[in-house]
Write a structure and sequence with these properties.
By secondary structure, the chain is α/β, with parallel strands linked by helices. It folds into 2 domains: about 140 residues, NAD(P)-binding Rossmann-like Domain (Rossmann fold, 3-Layer(aba) Sandwich); about 160 residues, Dihydrodipicolinate Reductase, domain 2, CATH 3.30.360.10. Helix content is about 30%, strand content about 20%. The protein has 9 helices and 13 strands. Strands 8-9-7-10-13-12-11 form a 7-stranded mixed β-sheet. A 6-stranded parallel β-sheet has the order 2-1-3-4-6-5, with helices on one face. Strand 1, helix 1 and strand 2 form a beta-alpha-beta unit. The model has no long low-confidence stretch (mean pLDDT about 90).
Length: about 325
Amino acid sequence: MTRIAIVGAAGYTGGELIRIVAQHPELKIGSLASRSQAGKQISEVHDDLFFLEGLEFSSEPNPEVDVVFLCTGHGASRQIIEENPWILERKVIDLSQDFRINRPDHQFVYGLPELNRGAIKESGHVANPGCFATAIQLALLPLSSGGLLKNEIYVHAITGSTGAGQKPSATTHFSWRNNNISVYKAFHHQHVAEIRQSLEQLQPDDLPVLHFVPVRGNFTRGILASLHTKTELSEREVLSLFEDFYADHPFAMVVERNPNVKQVVNTNYCLLHLRKHGEILHMVSVLDNLVKGASGQAVQNLNIMQGYPETEGLQLKSVAF
């Protein structure tokens, strides 16, 4: 049995992680830390976790654990580790962006299982990918693996409001977000750097420019990414390439029908749909930003690190209506 600590357990990703861990047969919650909610019962903050009685938030994580999940805001993970240096003596999965870019000042492996499963298995410290980054990379990795990204890549992707975190802001509160849609951080989103890092890992030479326009959606959870680029491959060749690339990866699925977000909500799956239109290859990638885009992928990484079946605890069902 693996004892886990969740730091930043009061946020959306923390709550989703608690829900997944609670049904995982090999995991046991050892510590739920939240400085803002310390002393409160879990169900007071996450009312969907009403069935978890007797658990409350502490102000600091308990060192008597095997694995630490960091669900803190971007920039806070480094600070938490500085304040609690014992964390690096445990296995760590960080859900912020603090360690996603490879640098000599840290030893975190980039935790996209479909790219780095072997390295994740051998690592003690994993940087969980971003939600947009996961959806976009899974649509492009098979092409980059063959050095087949030859032309500029165009991406429009829309995300649910939970991607902005739990704290209300001018662009997340109900009155603004409901019945509304908007572009933000066009061509300058922070996930572009990690996307390029992964693509360059497979295609180090002559990687084309990636143009990414993110969109805020008026729904709660999910991401739909629409990508297109020119390719000389036929549609059949593209489908074979993707099917072969993901044959050994349980959560990336190539589908015949054009997918929608409701299919993947509450699951750890990413559905990929591919069609050629003349010389243009169009790719659709959908996933749940809180599961495959965050907490579910974090547990998938833990399963790999601990030698558990990769799908353990992640047999979640979608709720389409």
